[in-house]
Structures are given as C-alpha cells and as structure tokens.
Write a structure and sequence with these properties.
Strand order of the largest sheet: 1-4-3-2-5
Number of strands: 12
Number of helices: 14
Strand content: 15-25%
Order of helices and strands: HHHEHHEEEEHHHHHEHEEHEEHHEE
Radius of gyration: 39 Å
C-alpha cells in the first residue's frame, strides 16, 4: 500500500510539473500565434508528410509534426505496434498525451531538443522548429528502445507502468520487437532534422519576406506612379489653361517682329537672339506631351547655349558630341535642359574666367547615355547633398531644383531606381551629370 501511495504521489507530481511547464509555455505559444509565420504557410503539408516518411524509412523512428499549439498537422508515420496497442487504453492515452505535452513545452522553454524515456519504457524526442526567433511547432519522433541512460530524462520514475506492460503478453511481445538504437543515432537524427527541415523553413521564410518586401515596394511604386501621373495631369492642365488665356503664338509673332526690327537696324546679335528664343518658345509650346526624338532636344539645348554664348561671349564655351544612331531615340522632352541651365548659371557664369560645358550622347550596353560635364566651380560634398539629395523627394523648392526633381522622378517611375540621374562634383574642378535611358522599348513602363 505504501508503494502504491508513493507511485500515485509521483504520478500526481508529474502531472503538476507538466501543468507548471504548460503555464510557462503558453506565453511562448501566444507569441507564436502573433508571429509573422505559420508552419502550414511555410511548407506544404503533403510535402512535409513525404519528408517525414523518408526520415522514418531512413532512421526507423516514428514521426509526426505539431504546430505551435501542439495540434498534429501531419499523419503519424511509422507508429509501432506497441504504441498502437498501448494508446488503445484511455488511461494510457492520457499519460501519453501528458508526456507529449511535457516534451514539447520543455523543448520550447529551453529552445533545444528534448530527449526522454516515456513511462512505457520507449524513447521519445521533441525537436522545436524555431525560425527567426519564432516558435512554429515541433517534430516528434521516437518509439524505440535505448539501453543508454546519459542525457535521457526518465519519466518512468514519476509514473510506473512497467507492471502494466509486463502483465499483457501481447504488449510485451510488441515491446520486445521495437528497435533498439544508440544514443548517437538519436543525436544524428536530431541533427538531420535541424539541418534539413529547419533550413528549408528558414529559406522559405526568407523567400516570403522578400516576396512581401517586393509587394510593398511595388505598391509604393504604383502609388508614386499614380501620384506622378496626377502631378503631370495638373501641369498639363495648367499649360492648357495658360494657352486658353493667351495664345502663345502671339508671343512668337512678337519675337518675329523684334527679329525683323533688329534686321532693319542691323543689330545682328539682337536678331539672332530673337530668332533663337522664338524657336525655343515654339518648341516648348509644341512639346508638352508625348515623346520626341533625342536630336530635337539636343537642338533645343544648342539654341539655349547659343543665346548664352551671345550674352556672355568668351565666358562660356560648349561642345556637343552625339552618336548618329541615337538621333531617333525617343525620350520625354525637357529632361536635359535643366541640368544644362544648372551647369551654366551655377557652375560656369559664377566662375571668374568662365568655362566649358561639354555634352556627350553615346550608347553603353543597351542604354542611351547623356553626359553633361562642366569645368565650373564645382561643389563640396555637403553642398552637393543640398543641391542634389539622395532621394528626389527632398529638394528645396526653387525653380531649377523642382525641374530636376521632376525629371528624376519621371525617370525612376518609368524605368526603375537604376535609372535615377547620377551627379558627381568636386570643388573647383567641375560637375558631371549622367542620364540613362534604356533603348529597348520593352524596358519602358510609361512616361
């Protein structure tokens, strides 16, 4: 009677221990419930069952996988005849469920595999699946015998079931037929699970994280694109309103009148400037939408530079080099001129003896490259960041700044961040601006 009372006390102590462990483990499970990843989302259950079947065949262990709540999400693979018969009794099944709970929660709390001997005398192992500090579930395997004791917690000291097992000849026969494995093989199987399954889950978690990041990025890009289209629509509407209020061709006619007057008065420079300005103005009002040939924008730039050359004579020099095959390359209008204006007004004209603006247009791989280089005053790094911020949203609201900001945004929205304008500058040495446009029309989203 005393022995029975002692065994009952140990049994009750064990159930109390499991309840304490369960209480401590609930907080971890609650965090897992609120986590970003779920086992069923990271791995297809059918594929997981195929994988555990391969593990079972290779090792001889029985396998199952549970989620963070302890619910089985795969079929039990390789379950021994002994365990099937043992679990057939309600009381034994209750003890087994408590043991499974103990093994699972101990592994969660300690965040490492838990190896224990169940009251029926078989080895059970719980391997927690923890990905990016999130507990997703566990792999339960075992249902074998092991003669070694080191490193194995014996739950049989709490719940004595040996007599019950020995009193049933069928259970004893099935028990004797269960495999005997070494402790080393148990550790090797744990390593195999962690190496294979945990890495697969980590890889899938990384893939999903990248996929979510790409979705967020695309959503942001779409939002920016919509905003850019709205801004573009506002600008076009303003231009149309301006046209309705005043016929711009009246200004062209006025400039022609000035040009004729200058010719009559033999004011050659005034005549030339009036002609160039009228051509610039006409180009501006005729190209508010759509795409133009690159050569047309280069002609507009040359008109601007000719006007400035007439104004400042020897203080400004310029050169334009262009590969012939790029003349018909389609580009959005007015994406080059603001950088030329910036080079002339802030780089060359503020320099005591002036300088040179050099424009080169050439092919590089599948891109048309427009390079604007000046040997003006240049900029220190701090000034460079103020004038040309790393993000096109951060410009100060001056006229040229806004123009450059809009150009950068149009290029990024059309082709991606790799087509943002590049600018380098060195104090007292000059500035280089590089604009790239993909020649392949398949790369073009929209302007």
């Amino acid at each position: 009677m005393e022995l029975e009372r002692l065994q009952e006390k140990r049994k009750n102590d064990f159930f109390s221990l499991v309840q304490v462990i369960e209480k401590n483990g609930k907080e971890i499970c609650k965090k897992s419930k609120d986590s970003r990843y779920y086992l069923k989302e990271l791995m297809d259950i059918e594929k997981l069952e195929q994988l555990q079947e391969q593990f079972s065949k290779a090792t001889g262990f029985a396998f199952t996988v549970v989620d963070f709540k302890g619910d089985e999400i795969t079929k039990r693979i390789g379950c021994s005849e002994f365990c099937k018969g043992w679990r057939a009794e309600k009381e034994n099944r209750k003890v087994c469920n408590f043991c499974d709970t103990y093994g699972r929660l101990e592994s969660i709390i300690n965040q490492k595999p838990n190896i224990y001997r169940c009251p029926a005398g078989l080895i059970e192992v719980t391997v927690p699946l923890i990905i990016k500090e999130q507990y997703l579930g566990a792999v339960l395997f075992g249902q074998v015998r092991c003669t070694e004791e080191d490193g194995i917690v014996n739950i049989g000291r709490f719940i004595q079931c040996e007599d019950k097992r020995k009193s049933n000849s069928m259970l004893m026969e099935n028990y004797e037929q269960t495999s005997i494995v070494s402790y080393k093989k148990i550790l090797s199987t744990i390593y195999l699970i962690q190496l294979t399954l945990c890495r697969m889950l980590e890889k899938e978690a990384d893939r999903k994280a990248l996929e979510e990041e790409n979705k967020r990025f695309m959503a942001e890009m779409i939002a920016k694109k919509i905003r850019a289209e709205m801004e573009k629509a506002v600008v076009i509407a303003e231009l149309k309103r301006f046209k309705e209020q005043m016929n711009p061709y009246l200004i062209v006619d006025a400039l022609k009148t000035i040009e004729n007057a200058a010719l009559t008065e033999r004011a050659e420079k005034t005549k030339e400037m009036a002609f160039l300005f009228s051509e610039m103005f006409k180009y501006t009002i005729e190209n508010t939408e759509g795409l133009i040939d690159l050569i047309e924008d280069i002609k507009q730039i040359e008109r601007y530079l000719q006007i400035q050359k007439i104004r400042f004579i020897d203080k400004l020099n310029y050169s334009i080099e262009m590969q012939g095959e790029l003349e018909k390359q389609k580009i959005p209008p007015f994406i080059i001129l603001p950088f030329i204006e910036n080079a002339v007004e802030h780089g060359i004209l503020v320099k005591k003896y002036g300088g040179t603006v050099r424009i080169r247009v050439y092919m590089e791989n599948t891109d048309a490259v427009i390079e604007i280089e000046d040997n003006g005053v240049g900029m220190a790094e701090k000034q460079m960041k103020e004038i040309f911020p790393s993000h096109p949203e951060d410009y100060e609201k001056d006229f040229i700044g806004i123009s450059i900001q809009n150009i950068r945004k149009r290029l990024i929205y059309s082709f991606g961040f790799q087509y943002d304008v590049q600018m380098t500058s060195k104090k007292n040495a000059g500035t280089i601006v590089t604009i790239r446009i993909p020649c392949d029309k398949k790369d073009r989203l929209s302007f």
